[in-house]
Amino acid sequence: GYLAYNKTIFLYSSNDSVNLDIRFTQNLLSDTYSSPINVVSLNSQKDDAYPTLNSDNSAIYFCSDRDGDFDIYKAEINKTGSLVEILSDSSSTTITRETILSSDYNDKCPFITGNLMLFVSDKAGGYGGFDLYYSKFKDGEWTTPVNFGENINTEYDEYRPIVKTYKDDFTNDFMIFSSDRPGGNGGFDLYYVGINKMTE
Predict the structure, then answer these.
(1) Burial annotation 45-74 (CB, 10 A radius, 16+ → b, else e)
(2) Model confidence over 29-72: pLDDT tens digits?
(3) Does residue 22 register a pLDDT over 90?
(4) Direct distance between the N- and C-terminal alpha carbons of the chain, in angstroms, rounded to an integer
(5) Is the pLDDT of residue 171 over 90?
(6) For residue 85, what is the DSSP state?
(7) Dist. CA 60–CA 48, nearest whole Å
(8) Across the chain, what does the average pLDDT equal?
(9) CB atoms within 10 A of CB 25
């Protein structure tokens, strides 16, 4: 017999150079992952991190401090080639700051599943430190971000959210995030919580 494997493109950020840069590796073209490749069209002289594709792979969202504090940016994807070809293309692409998602503070760690985006921000009006927020993609744009509230956020830092959506009989979706709140093992620990289903 043989061990089946998933064909995957893995987007991530690395600070192998001076700043964080977005890279990818893939095993679509062979049975082993390729050497990491810089996504030149997304990277700047500043930190660029936490890349995430939207639901139809027409755009990559990521955070960057290229204009001062961290904001969330969008790069449209030209769908005339494969995703590997698009990510490998070093020609420039139009990158726009998502104003509804970005503030005068640090907005980071975007993660998209379906029509739902999660991210973190230390903007005013939260519970302290970085808080978890969500926004829904509706009628061609992101809605005003909503804080997950005091049952999830604390005066400490909540960070790096991801959501696993479930179908079938589950009434909630499953969110994992990290936090440096008291009661963990030190530094940032992983936490999970059920959240209301918000993806369509």
Answers:
(1) eebbbbbbebeeeebbbbbbbbeeebbbbb
(2) 788 889 999 999 999 999 999 999 999 889 999 999 999 999 99
(3) yes
(4) 39
(5) no
(6) H
(7) 12
(8) 91
(9) 15
DSSP code at position 36 = P
Provide φ and ψ at 29, rounded to 5°.
-100, -10
Please state the pTM of the whole predicted model: 0.92
How many Cα atoms are found within 13 Å in the side-chain-facing hemisphere of 33? 12
> Length of the chain in residues, anyone?
200
Find out whether 102 and 72 touch, Cβ atoms under 8 Å: yes
Burial degree of 9 (CB within 10 A; 0-12, 13-18, 19+): middle
Three-state DSSP class for residue 111: strand
For 178, the token pair is: 């990290």
pLDDT of 13 > 60? The answer is yes
The two tokens of residue 124 are 């005013």
Residue tagged 């660029």 (tokens): 48
H or E segment and range at residue 87:
helix 83-88
Under the phi-then-psi rule, with left for phi > 0, alpha for psi from -120 to 50, and beta for the rest, what region is 115?
A: alpha
Residue 66's nearest CA partner among 110, 106, 11 is 106
